[in-house]
Amino acid sequence: MAGAEFGDTIGKLGTTHFYPTRETLAYLASKRMNVVRFPFKWERLQPVLNKPFDMNELQPLINSVALAKSMGFKVILSPHTNARHFGKQIGSREVPASAFADFWTRLAKLYAGDQDIIFLLQNEPDFMDAAFWLPSANAGIAAIRKTGADNMILVPGTIWTSAYHWYADQNGGSNAAVMNGIVDPLDNYAYDIHQYPDEDFSGTHRTCPAKDTAIEALQRVTDWLKASGKRAILSEFGGTSSPDCLAAIREMAGFINDNPETWIGWTYWAAGDWWGDYPLSIQPETMGGADRPQMDALEPYVLGSSGEIPSCSALDAQRGGLRTAR
Q: Is residue 5 part of a domain?
């Protein structure tokens, strides 16, 4: 449910950025989707490090979360700043890991113990090595657990947390080598993985010639998860309405559904009322109008490969049942 991360770093709520609408949530619910991801900018919620949240931004987020929950969704809270605060990397002198821990302490306290709320540490850390990111990721997890929150945590790697780049060489080791160093005393976390099937895996091209390569990358990550006894979510994938992209969307959703022992689910990029003609959008052009081709491609996979709705107990365990447009 994109929108709250739009616009300039601060911007103006209702002009540069927007929170989800009831109409779009109802549309996704009508498709039996059960989780939405709410991206937002850390700087708007906490303009000054180690200081209280700005209520002008916090209250709309709280209201949106409550609305989504009332409609049966789990909510993934996603600070959408590529592991930065005003452009400075988490773990740097300007934004130390302690400031990142302070942010998560404040946010986690709001939803501690609410199993409908899932914490994503950060969206797509980029231009940093996994070995540099790991201490900050662990600091965020430790801060969350110190509040008493037992919520599921989603942990990204670096290089945009791409499956294709999971084994790519980095100073200090690849994501595959380094991210096994995640420490969660409750062991209630999953790795956050993204993968697009276009030519350079960025999701910015009109066709998807790299479908097979994308599936191969997901298989490599699956093998890594099995070997380490861990889980993941494919929280970003998508494509345009071109036939090869629609085929890729179907195959990727099916792959995740067919590997429930390692993948807890998927979220598609992206839904939201303010995309306009963005080619990956799954938002109908007009509410009540025709579904986008991408929705038609995805809908058979929302219920899982067996065609059955995941049980409430399975969802409560947050295993195997998270499927939606983001």
A: no
pLDDT at 94: 98
Whether residue 177 is predicted with pLDDT greater than 50 in this model: the reply is yes
Q: Is 94 a catalytic residue?
A: no
CA 277, distance to chain mean position in Å, is 22
Residue 104: which pLDDT band, with cuts at 50, 70 and 90? very high
- The candidate with the shortest Cα–Cα distance to 46, out of 60, 38, 58, is 58
Beta-bridge partners for 323: 266
Residue 31 zone, left/alpha/beta (φ > 0; ψ -120 to 50; rest): alpha
- Considering 5, 43, 57, 236, which one is annotated as catalytic? 236
Catalytic residue check, 199: no
Phi and psi at 104, nearest 5°, equal -70, -30
Task: Give the domain range for residue 171.
Answer: 22-325
Q: Which of 43, 124, 251, 299 is catalytic?
A: 124
Cα–Cα distance list, 228 to 245, 254, 268, 277 (Å): 31, 23, 26, 41
Query: What's the domain count of the chain?
Result: 1
Q: How many angstroms separate the CA atoms of 304 and 287, rounded?
A: 26
DSSP for 104-155, please give it: HHHHHHHHTT-TTEEEE--S---SS-HHHHHHHHHHHHHHHHHTT----EEE
pTM of the model: 0.93
Q: Are strands 153-156 and 88-89 parallel, antiparallel or unpaired?
A: unpaired
- Please identify which residue in the block is written with the tokens 């992209």: 245
Q: How far is CA 254 from the centre of its chain?
A: 18
- 31, part of any domain: yes
Q: What is the mean pLDDT of residues 258-267?
A: 96
Q: What is the CATH number of the domain that holds 221?
A: 3.20.20.80
